[in-house]
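Section 5: illustrative case.
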């Protein structure tokens, strides 16, 4: 499991996009009403994104590794990390669950999603071995008090009141991935509506879809410009 986790972590930028491509595969539907499906899917996905925003806004942790290998400069145990050991990964899992629902893909939710969760579980096991080796008893104490996946909401209000929230950091760290999944979700909805037997909704909503995509793209490039020009910095 640990060896597999290290492998997946090293090649995650190649492997994980494949999961998103599987959202486009033809599949049996989850719900009969696509309006209900999209509504539930977006609520789930936005819940995952909100969890990531709260995590990064309160205390950011670098999960990119060093030269594609696991790396941690310090042991972060504050912010949302004091309630859940892997809140960013949990947010990713919730987001892709929402996308699977938006795609109305029974195949994705039943077959692909468990594999996605297993992949993250393998990464987490590899990270835990690395952190045990590096931080020893400090990490052991942390694992005794904080759940691996299920957030403990006890004293959550104290966490918010004792830690300042950094919106600039959220924008800098999340603008790219948020734009990708939001844009992808709109395109998935458009695809599904277009290929329905009665696709009148696609043509009725087409101007709205185009407007949404345009606004999101403009906002994306504004934030990107502000970041690249150092007008937007995490200070």
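Designed sequence:
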């Amino acid at each position: 499991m640990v060896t597999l986790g290290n492998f997946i972590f090293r090649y995650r930028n190649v492997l994980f996009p494949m999961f998103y491509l599987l959202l486009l595969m033809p599949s049996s539907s989850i719900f009969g009403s696509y309006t209900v499906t999209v509504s539930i899917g977006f609520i789930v996905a936005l819940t995952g994104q909100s969890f990531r925003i709260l995590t990064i806004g309160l205390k950011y942790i670098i999960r990119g590794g060093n030269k594609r290998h696991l790396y941690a400069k310090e042991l972060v145990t504050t912010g949302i990390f004091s309630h859940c050991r892997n809140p960013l990964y949990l947010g990713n899992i919730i987001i892709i669950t929402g996308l699977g629902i938006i795609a109305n893909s029974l195949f994705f939710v039943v077959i692909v999603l468990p594999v996605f969760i297993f992949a993250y579980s393998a990464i987490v096991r590899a990270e835990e071995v690395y952190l045990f080796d590096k931080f020893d008893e400090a990490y052991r104490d942390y694992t005794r008090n904080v759940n691996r996946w299920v957030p403990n909401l006890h004293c959550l209000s104290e966490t918010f009141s004792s830690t300042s929230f950094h919106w600039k950091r959220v924008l800098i760290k999340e603008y790219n991935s948020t734009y990708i999944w939001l844009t992808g979700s709109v395109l998935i909805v458009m695809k599904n509506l277009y290929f329905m037997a009665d696709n009148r909704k696609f043509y009725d909503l087409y101007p709205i879809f185009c407007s949404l995509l345009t606004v999101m793209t403009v906002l994306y490039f504004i934030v990107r410009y502000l970041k690249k020009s150092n007008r937007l910095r995490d200070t």
